[in-house]
Amino acid sequence: MEINEKDLKLIIESVLNKLESDKSDKKISADSLNSSSGQDGIFEEVNTAVDAAEAAHLELVKLTLEKRREIIRSIRKIIMSNLEEISKLAVEETTFGRVEDKIEKNRLAALKTPGIEDLEPTAYSDDNGMTLMERAAYGVIGSIIPSTNPTSTVINNGISMIAGGNSVVFNPHPMAKKSSCFTVSLINQAI
Q1: pLDDT for 108-132, tens place per residue?
Q2: Is 2 left (phi over 0), alpha (psi -120 to 50) or beta?
Q3: Domain Aldehyde dehydrogenase: where (predicted)?
Q4: Going from the N-terminus, what domains does the chain have, and what CATH number goes with each?
């Protein structure tokens, strides 16, 4: 079967129109996320989330390491205060695991995820002079949240990213949307 250029253009135009139509039909509403756009770090559109994360990153890299340490301390505190609630929500929503195991996993993520202590500068000296190596932030990171461990993944990635001076856009699994978004909102409240 041969397709001439005119027919090919018509097919492409038809497909693009169909994709555009489907895209507008499938937008997630703010009500389905139980949040307005941007409130506590929850966004309806990925582009809006990325734009907000980029702005947050630019602010974060201006902060001192000590200020990042304070933010991480605040995140650990709010997670520990809501440990049982986020653990129950993750089990109820996903039907995976046991609450007591999620509590322990979330506790470990909150208390044992390294903060800025792993960001020590290193200096080398030889006959050619001295080299100082300091770690630099990457920027905006994308994180896909699994349904198996949604809350602990958000906690671990959130602390790790902030320690490194990065911001993060979380994309939760559909089965773990509420627990993931709730944990993201807690971290945003702590910041």
Answers
A1: 999 999 998 888 888 889 999 999 8
A2: beta
A3: 44-190
A4: 36-114+138-190 (3.40.605.10)
